[in-house]
Design brief:
Elements lengths: L4 E5 L2 H4 E3 L2 E2 L10 H10 L3 E5 L15 H4 L15 E2 L6 E2 L6 H20 L7 E5 L19 H15 L2 H8 L23 H23 L8 E5 L9 H7 L4 E4 L8 H14 L4 E6 L2 E2 L8 H13 L4 E5 L7 E2 L11 H17 L4 E3 L3 E5 L1 H10 L43 H12 L4 E5 L4 H4 L4 E6 L5 H12 L3 E6 L23 E4 L2 E4 L5 H8 L6 E2 L4 E8 L5 E7 L5 E17 L4 E11 L3 E8 L2
Parallel strand pairs: 1-4, 4-7, 7-8, 8-9, 10-12, 15-16, 15-17, 17-18, 18-20
Antiparallel strand pairs: 2-3, 5-6, 11-13, 14-22, 19-20, 21-24, 22-23, 23-26, 24-25, 24-26
Helix pairs in contact: 5-7, 7-12, 10-11
Length: 624
């Protein structure tokens, strides 16, 4: 098929015979990792290794030795001190705590025995070019704020986290309006009970701790490897709290932070947002697991035509690296191009061979997507929504089914006299104001990336226009960042509100000179809008450039320019279930060559093209 890199898990539970004893092929030849890596080197294949400790992979116990999960000193706890269970076929198991000291001692023992093999085969002398630091580290899909972890080690870590941030208990008391004499007296919240704004900092800190604990865990695991190849990690699907992608990459212990996705074609607009977020936030937009086949209880196995559409569309929106999961089938997995007994499924096989030829011919990694606009989510707005969800016993109970209670039952009805919050946003992933902006941009062929207020100034400066979701409060450092961007020549459109508080619920005056009262308010380079539809008026006024436009608003376009003075590439997507005939409008006379599923075309200021339902076409724009 033309792939040059392979990826493999290394399951702890498979290689540990008993504590302190490991079989990497010395007893059972089927466990010979060293031989596997030698075969890869013989065939000039590069390798990504995923040694865990968590691997999932639809394995029993997610690849952990059973003795690890059954150790009381390692287990995470609910607010009631009971076991927090992962309800998953084929066997349920107790979730391990990211704060457990004993857990990391056990992981270190496993890694110490595995490390000599990894080091022997590291690039540039060997085939291993990247190592995954753990897998989908986000509380085993139980990312509700109050589901876990209330184990002894976790509470101690939480108290130390507060001490590191406040240094002195008097500073915490001032913010919390409390009278603690020591950080060890502070117990974490088990549900949201705030009635006044002054109580919110306590809950903000708990949400920040849940983010911190993920980074703490990844850092602990990364520091166990004294190697120089890149480290990467993958979120299961989240790009909101408790996942903090931009902060994790900037911390230095994770080089690349990707996000997994297994999309059906009908989910196009949802996974498109994820891809645009990766393009706006990560140093290397990477999907570490992208569906090529699916697990055994997935709702609908992908057809070859569907995989073609979803795969081409993520490249269209800017993905630079992708790991197809899985090209070779195994038990508990279905719908891959190569079966477990090495038979080829022709239609899948043919698509991936065509795809690799396309990527190699055009060297797509040497192209940059043209986008001038960044949509920015207020990260603390997501934190606020997350903290309001009270403890839900049935949160993800479970991915494979269970009681599904409405989210509305678990959200506080206290509004704290805030003016701008959207009550329809029930989950930290939701931001209706910004999502509506995105839909309007899509239908008017404005390309954009997405990020959040944790993005650094240098990255923000790359965009001509910043569209910011803003509410009653915003972290003070984020407010300063926006003002700095404007001072450096950037233009900001913000809404549905204007922040007048920081996250300590103290008044700020960074945006005081913008006064509410009109639909669109102008202040030099800062514009305020409440109604997303007003974005069109401002974009027309600002004359944000679009090289290509479609006469049909359901057709999306994406232009790529080469870093090596090659011809431009123009992607076109029809994400509907209807065939669409459209005119593509541009300036001057242009010639287009078929690059993917199209025909050669030319035209003066427009061409006519037909796109089948759920299809992608790519045109090479010839230089005239």
């Amino acid at each position: 098929m033309g792939f040059k890199i392979v990826e493999t898990y290394i399951p702890w539970s498979i290689h540990e015979i008993k504590k302190g004893q490991f079989d990497f092929g010395n007893i059972d030849k089927n466990k010979d990792i060293n031989e596997f890596l030698k075969i890869c080197e013989k065939h000039n294949l590069k390798v990504l290794v995923r040694p865990g400790p968590h691997i999932n992979a639809e394995m029993t116990y997610f690849g952990y030795p059973k003795r690890i999960l059954m150790d009381p000193d390692i287990q995470a706890k609910t607010p009631h001190g009971t076991l927090c269970m992962m309800v998953r076929d084929p066997k349920h198991f107790p979730i391990p705590s990211y704060a457990s000291k004993k857990f990391y001692n056990e992981v270190a023992l496993y890694f110490d025995n595995l490390a000599p093999i990894i080091k022997e085969h590291m690039y540039p002398n060997g085939c291993i070019i990247g190592l995954q630091i753990d897998n989908e580290t986000c509380y085993f899909f139980k990312d509700n704020a109050y589901s876990l972890d209330y184990s002894k080690d976790s509470i101690e870590l939480y108290q130390n986290f507060l001490k590191q941030n406040y240094l002195e208990i008097s500073r915490l008391n001032k913010k919390y309006h409390t009278k603690y004499s020591d950080f060890k007296e502070i117990y974490p919240p088990i549900e949201f009970k705030a009635q006044e704004k002054k109580e919110l900092p306590y809950y903000f800190d708990w949400i920040k701790y849940k983010e911190y604990k993920i980074q703490y865990s990844l850092n602990k695991i990364a520091n166990m490897w004294s190697i120089t190849i890149p480290f990467y990690h993958n979120a299961a699907y989240q790009y909101w709290t408790p996942i903090d992608l931009t902060s994790s990459e900037s911390s230095g212990y994770i080089d690349i932070y990707g996000i997994d996705r297994y999309p059906n074609k009908e989910e196009y607009h949802d996974y498109k947002k994820l891809v645009k977020y990766l393009c706006g936030s990560s140093k290397l937009p990477f999907i570490p697991e992208f569906g090529s086949g699916v697990w055994f209880y997935f709702q609908k196995t992908f057809l070859p035509s569907e995989e073609e559409f979803t795969t081409l569309s993520v490249f269209m929106h800017g993905i630079k690296a992708i790991n197809f999961y899985m090209i070779v089938e195994r038990d508990r997995w279905q719908g891959s191009p190569v079966t477990m007994d090495n038979r080829i499924r022709t239609q899948y096989f043919t698509f991936y061979k065509r795809l690799n030829n396309f990527l190699n011919n055009y060297k797509l990694y040497k192209y940059q997507k043209v986008r001038r606009i960044l949509l920015m989510r207020d990260y603390d707005y997501g934190r606020f929504i997350a903290m309001q969800n009270s403890y839900n016993l049935n949160q993800f109970a479970d991915i494979i089914g269970g009681i599904n209670l409405p989210q509305e039952l678990f959200k506080s009805n206290v509004n704290f006299d805030f003016k701008y919050l959207d009550k329809s946003d029930l989950h930290p992933s939701e931001n209706n104001w910004l999502d509506n902006i995105g839909r309007i941009l899509d239908r008017n062929n404005y390309n954009y990336d997405i990020s959040d207020t944790h993005l650094n100034n240098e990255e923000i400066k790359k965009y001509e226009l910043l569209i910011l979701s803003s509410y009653d409060f915003m972290d003070e450092s984020a407010q300063k960042k926006i003002i700095e961007y404007v001072k450096n020549g950037g233009i900001v459109i913000m809404g549905p509100g204007i922040p007048y508080l920081n996250t300590d619920m103290q008044y700020t005056d960074y945006f005081n000179n913008i006064k509410i009262g009109e639909n669109i308010l102008r202040n030099g380079k800062i514009y305020y809008i409440n109604n997303p539809i007003d974005i069109v008026e401002i974009l027309n006024m600002l004359k944000i450039r679009r090289e290509y436009r479609s006469s049909n608003k359901d057709i999306e376009l994406s232009l790529f320019k080469s870093t090596e003075n090659r011809n431009d590439l123009l992607f076109l997507a029809n994400s509907t279930d209807n065939e669409i005939n459209t005119n593509i409008v541009f300036d001057g006379y242009k010639k287009f060559k078929n690059a993917w599923n199209a025909v050669d075309l030319c035209g003066n200021e427009k061409i006519e093209i037909t796109l089948e339902p759920y299809s992608i076409k790519v045109l090479e724009v010839k230089k005239c």
